[in-house]
Each structure stands twice: as structure tokens, then as C-alpha cells.
Design brief:
By secondary structure, the chain is of the alpha+beta class. It is 40% helix and 26% strand. Helix 3 packs across helix 4 and helix 5 crosses helix 6.
């Protein structure tokens, strides 16, 4: 699957073949992020903006390096700061233990029916590796979450460098899964999110059926975004 030749990416939209599409990340961000609000409320505005810019820049660097690794390109780990070195090391282990074989990387996906577009980090093969899954319960009952993909599966994946995997991340992933299906007619098995932070990696998974409610929520977010932007419904 190739990216569109006629492509322009703006801060709040994608323009594909001359048509504008809302960005998936802007759509899902219409949902209030309580944790982010609390952080901003407790922090100096300028300092919080500076910190988020630094984290955003680090996230972009990590994404670019992960893409190079999956493309089989050499990455000189010595060049980078400690956190990025740790992320690269963990990512290489993820590639091996979860049998990642990319079909598409940084793949632009869009839905003409929803006027939405975004870029998926990863589409390809994946297999659950139980030690990466989150722990639940207490004491003797504490164990890893039930793996969704015990057999090699066809999925969409996302990399995050946030403190945790926030619920709205699944809205983004569900949008990619169903836009891929709309464009190709191929039904994926589900998706996973790999989170890298503080020299720890956690992977969470959801099946196709588990992502359906998140896609429904995504579709409901679009008119809210348009209302905020004062875009009248079609025909008005």
C-alpha cells in the first residue's frame, strides 16, 4: 500500500488529491483528557508548554528511529541521549519477541465517508508476548492480561512515549483499523499499542471486535469537532 502522491499535511488537516480531511488526532482530542488538564493546572503555563514541546520532539525522533529499524536500516545508538537509547533497545526486543514484519510504515489512511485522515505507525504481522502485557490483580492473583494474539496476526500498531496508555489512544487506533479496511477491503485482526517510558515497555492489545465501540465513538467526535470549528452541517 502506497501513500497518496498528492498529499499535504497541515496542523489540523490532511489534503489528499485536492480534498481536505480532518486529522484523526484532532478529532479524538475533542474528548477531554483529564490527566493532561490536571498537569497543566498544576504547572506554570510556559513551562508546561516547553515540556510538552520537548516530549513531542523526542516522540518524533523515536518514531523515526523505529521506522528505520523496521526498514532494516542501521541505527547508531551511541548518538542519542539515554532515554532514546533505552527505547531503541526495548524496541529491538519487541520486534523479535512479537515477530514484527511490516507491511506498511507511516501509512497515510483516510476515509472519504468521514472526511478524516491520519498516519498509522505500523501495519503488519504481530504475535502476543505475554511478559510485555500489563499486570492486573493483587498478590497471588496478580498476573498478565489475557493475550489477544497467540497466533501470528495481521494488525495495526502504534508507538507511544507517554506516561501511560490513555483510553483515547484506542480511538485513534480504531480509526486507522477501519480506514484501512475502507480503503483496502481487508479486515485486520485488531491492534496493539507499545508504550515506552522510564526504561520500561508495556504493550496493550485489542481485537477487531473490541475496537468497534472506539470507532463508533470516533465517528461521534467528528460533528463535535465541526461544531467547535463552527462548521455547519452539510445542507445548512
Amino acid at each position: 500500500m502506497k501513500n497518496p502522491k498528492d498529499l499535504m499535511v497541515g496542523n489540523s488537516y490532511y489534503q489528499i488529491n485536492g480534498v481536505k480531511y480532518h486529522r484523526v488526532t484532532k478529532i479524538k482530542n475533542i474528548i477531554n483528557n483529564e490527566g493532561l488538564n490536571i498537569y497543566r493546572a498544576k504547572s506554570d503555563y510556559d513551562e508546561s508548554q516547553k515540556y510538552m514541546h520537548i516530549r513531542g520532539k523526542l516522540g518524533k525522533t523515536v518514531h523515526a528511529l523505529f521506522q528505520k529499524i523496521l526498514e532494516g536500516k542501521n541505527v547508531d545508538i551511541k548518538r542519542y541521549e539515554t532515554e532514546i537509547k533505552e527505547d531503541i533497545t526495548m524496541f529491538k526486543e519487541l520486534v523479535n519477541n512479537c515477530h514484527l514484519q511490516p507491511e506498511a510504515l507511516e501509512q497515510v489512511l483516510y476515509s472519504m465517508s468521514l472526511s478524516a485522515a491520519g498516519t498509522a505507525d505500523y501495519i503488519g504481522s504481530y504475535k502476543s508476548y505475554i511478559p510485555y502485557l500489563p499486570l492486573r490483580g493483587r498478590g497471588k492473583n496478580r498476573k498478565h492480561m489475557q493475550p489477544r494474539f497467540l497466533n501470528l496476526s495481521h494488525v495495526v500498531g502504534d508507538w507511544k512515549t507517554s506516561p501511560r496508555i490513555h483510553p483515547d489512544f484506542w480511538i485513534q487506533l480504531a480509526a486507522y483499523l477501519f480506514m484501512f479496511e475502507e480503503q483496502t477491503g481487508i479486515k485486520l485482526d485488531g491492534g496493539f499499542i507499545a508504550q515506552f517510558r522510564d526504561n520500561k515497555m508495556t504493550v496493550e492489545e485489542k481485537t477487531y471486535d473490541e475496537l468497534v465501540p472506539y470507532y463508533t465513538l470516533f465517528k461521534h467526535c467528528i460533528p463535535l469537532l465541526e461544531f467547535r470549528k463552527n462548521i455547519l452541517p452539510k445542507g445548512e
